[in-house]
Specification:
Structural class: alpha/beta
Radius of gyration: 17 Å
Protein name: YdcF family protein
Distance between the termini: 28 Å
Domain DUF218: 42-141
Strand order of the largest sheet: 3-2-1-4-5
Mean pLDDT: 96
Low-confidence stretches: none
Organism: Saccharopolyspora endophytica
Amino acid sequence: MGTAVPEEHRADAELLWDYHDMGHELRRCDVGVGLGSHDLGVADHIVELYGSGWFPLVVFTGANAPTTVERFPRGEAVHYREHAIGRGVPGAAIVVEPKATNTAENIEFTRQALAGRETESLLLVSKPYQQRRAFATAKKVWPEADIVCSSQRTPLDDYVRAIGDADRVIDMLVGDTQRITLYAERGFAVPQDVPAEVEAAYQRLLAAGYTRRLVRD
């Protein structure tokens, strides 16, 4: 289990890393939505954004996945809420959506949890490499909402060190790149442009064996 990106794959991994960053400029939104995952940095970033006044209300959404059940046995959203409260976010400002098991459910169940509230804009907070997929999914599931994406501004090498497994991170980058096209084809997300250099990097990483997070029919 290496904690450094292999030099022969660095350029391709960084291309994918940069591609998944939507580069959105922050603006005030009605609600901040923290998408559950293994990455507690999502909750940390929500705390920072809430403290800076970017939204008055937080939704943490997520049940469990095989990759999170040991770390967050009571559910991703529940643990995120506890972490955020521990860092000063008032419990009254947090809504927990504890049932979603995929990104589409994250968005749809969040929409249901906010029924009755005037919600026109969402600031989606995710893992860095999930931004583009979260955006494409949200625009499909909740098309009338104004969507802004944000993640912790973490260089790839720092993120790999935090996760402790370079191969796992590259596998996830490759898997999310596949999902951008595949989920649009299946009607789960709106299409996103995939530049030729991104597609080429993706294909090289596939050929190098980074296939463990692919969707397989």
